[in-house]
Amino acid sequence: MFKQANWNEPVIFDLGRNGRRGHVLPKVEEEVKNAVGVLSAVLPKNMRRTSQFRLPELSEVEVVRHFIRLSEMNYGVDSGLYPLGSCTMKYNPKINEQLASMPTMGMLHPYQDESTVQGILEILYRLERWLAEITGTHEVCLHPSAGAHGEFLGTLLMRAYHKFNGKSEKRSEVIIPDSAHGTNPASAAMAGFNVVVVPSDDEGCVSLGALKAAVSERTAGLMLTNPNTLGIFERNIDEIARIIHEAGGLLYYDGANLNPILGKARPGDMGFDIVHMNIHKTFSTPHGGGGPGAGPVGVSEELAKFLPVPRIVFDGACYRLDYDSPHSIGKIRSFYGNTAVLLKAYAYILSLGFEGLKEAAEVSALNANYLMKKLRGIKGLTLPYDCEKPRKHECVFSAKPLKNETSVSALNIAKRLLDYGLHAPTIYFPLIVEEALMIEPTETFEKEELDRFAEAVRKTCEEAYRNPEMVLKAPHNTAISRLDEVKTSHPRTMALSWRMYLKKSK
Amino acid sequence: MKTLDGHNHPYIPNSQPEIKKEMMREIGIKNIDELYADIPEKYRLKKPLNLPEALSEFEVKRQIETLLSKNKTNSDMPTFLGAGCWPHYVPAVVKEIVQRSEFLTAYTPYQPEISQGMLQALFEYQSMICELTGMDVANSSVYDWASALGEAARMATRITGRSEVLIPRIIHRERAATLQVYGESAGIKIQQLAYNEESGQINLEDLKSKISDRTAAVYIENPHYLGFIETQVDEIAKEAHAHGALFIVGVDPTSLGILKPPGEYDADIVIGEAQPLGNATNFGGPLLGMFACRDDMNLIRQMPGRIIGLTTTIDGSKQGFCMALQTREQHIRREKATSNICSNEALCAVASAVYMALLGPQGIRELGETIMYKANYAMRLLSEIEGVKTPIFKSAHFKEFTVNFDSAGKSVKEVHKKLLQNRIHGGKDISKEFPELGETAVYCVTEVHSKEEIERLAEVLKKVLGGR
Lengths: 506, 468
Fold this sequence. Notes:
Chain A has helices at 30-36, 39-42, 60-72, 94-100, 103-106, 118-135, 147-164, 183-190, 208-214, 237-246, 279-282, 339-375, 400-406, 410-419, 447-466, 468-472, 498-505; strands at 139-141, 173-177, 194-198, 219-225, 250-254, 274-276, 297-299, 311-314, 319-322, 395-398, 426-427, 436-439. Chain A is of the alpha/beta class. The radius of gyration of chain A is 26 Å and the shape is globular. Chain B is built from 14 helices and 12 strands. The longest helix of chain B has 38 residues, at 346-383. At the A-B interface, helix 1, helix 3, helix 4, helix 5 and helix 6 of A face helix 1, helix 2, helix 3, helix 4 and helix 5 of B.
């Protein structure tokens, strides 16, 4: 069975020796020193650092060893199946990493004269056009640093639109289905909106009756994920768009689940006015254990004038950064976006082409439906909502029966799957499914790996009936056993830095 | 996929027609489109996307390399740009570690037992940022300094229940613009503090006249945007706290080996840009927003972003790491979360942790000294040129400084154009940002600028300003 490395690696502050160093800086020439004089005379006395600070003191060798050992106690897509629902953990092509680390990318400064950055501007300009084509939107802004940042921009655009129409005071509500990602309500609230939640119907889709009852002259817009977090396509999208638009609201597309409809259908065609994309999901850039990602936003023609500055423009000969946009909302970060990440997305789209993107979409749906089929009928699990309905990129099972019968919960299943050398699905989400296991295999994994996963789930459920104690204590084969997560959040035991830990352990 | 001619795409193993058939048989469908039957007919895309055809790996590489070769970098032309994104050397070890695929290809560590490596590395990053800044708690990153400022201002208004934030007049345009946007939707009113015309320092009289019991926070930057060091930190902190406002300080962490850390002058929240610690400039992204605060539950509970904590296994036998205080976050608290942020800049934070570990306390001190020596050397050389005034403000400067061409009667634009013709890239033109400072640019010099490059800059500048 799988066994993860366990190095018992000390916290870095407990390694090394006084005076040891891992890197030598270029020398300051004597002439420079002589010309400037002693720094203590240049630096105001009250602003000099006199205190010691406790950074580790290690040789280069030890630094490398420490972090290599840590990396061996981590699991990535390159290690195996990573079926986190709504996270689209697909393969991150190696060539893209090579290209993004070229000096002609890495060493560029954002304020360089435009004549010296024509290459990267051309790449970004083309990428904007391609993403607009893929989403069926008019214009795309590459600035947002992550999906949630894109959502924040999207909800700010809603504000700007209603303000432009003189209705910002009135349009105070954003409607969000109960199956939505947590970022949706958080983003809407950040942009100053009140959140109105609409329930899902028996089929796991937005309840039209509830939506009709929720809209009013206060509606600023609706945030919708389609296919939704159950992997089900919102079949009434036509009607939903009509209800929102007739009420004077805007339709926002959460692009976390864009992957299965690439080249198959486009949010813009369905009436969405604002669309965000997760570059680190759909467009294969690595998630890096929590970023950097990128969350471009596409909009309809009517909303383009509100996008952040600068916009990349092409005058037929040269690419330029244009700050002249009187209706722009302004800026949501410095510079132009996570460019090095966006370059990888450009390479990905080139590697797949229009046919390959569609192929990726179809195989992601094929894989999800295949897994759904393989997992159905496993004792202890149910498939909520219409079992015969195809899912798109993901499927959501419930472990409620298993929990009732064995006390083994979705959490315990997740932990036990780690023992099989697999990553766990997303659990307890969407909130409308009890004991949810949300599974998104993506197009990346071959049938054999999918079979291995299905088999591991089946075995885990069998173990739950046979030997629940063992499953409850899982994981057994990871670098560490179950952690006390409560301790880190209790003021008495909370240790959020090494100095805080030392202070409390005295 | 026609172009594949019956084979699979290298990234999509199951795109092999035989396998697809096998899997479809298992599902009980004959055609993949049956999986899309619930998409209304009128929304099903009838024609292919207007995108290029797939290229082979070699062709992709060649195309992108060709495009990128149109760019020029500081190896073609010494470049003196900073202003929020700074060129520093990234040691080979840093690049090696962040390319480890177990880090690179992992998601957010939702399952801590199988993600200890990433969690520990992030905890170490947080801890090292605390050491540098003199604070107790740091999160595992926000997007960049600008959004960190927006989040910090919102955090301060949540804590104090007040809505005014005071910021310096001399501030990066992009940070001020971002703060404006983050603040507006939270009803935050931003006021700028005048500066002392001689020294550039915060005008304390202006601070005293603008601060009140409506002030949620006073924000300063050290060094200031234009490179000089603010020395009235104790007075500003005292003033802020006397009015019940929080004191927020923005820093360039490369200065903290030699500059007094904000934790030692009573800052409540410290933000800044940690990109210079081990991350390339990358045309301005990704960056790495720092965010730290004091050990005070009122602050910690309102902090945005992921925070990693040290804990033990349930049986208490071993130390380990997991995400802490998740009840502040969007996936649990939804619209009541302290921020919507989830994906941040984790891998850049790991790069910074590796960088700080390599340099150690001595290296970080030397980094600060090296930068300050070289920047001050450049300032000295340029100040000897007729037609150049540098720096504008009589204060100590760290790695950036203002260069003014008014007495030469030339605009920054024309001077920089000539520099570029001589294969030197000047600093950032700030004549539009701060019209009152005339034809001024802000130049940046770090450890990557050699003495020869600095001297060449001075020589060419002399020629450009004097010659006709």
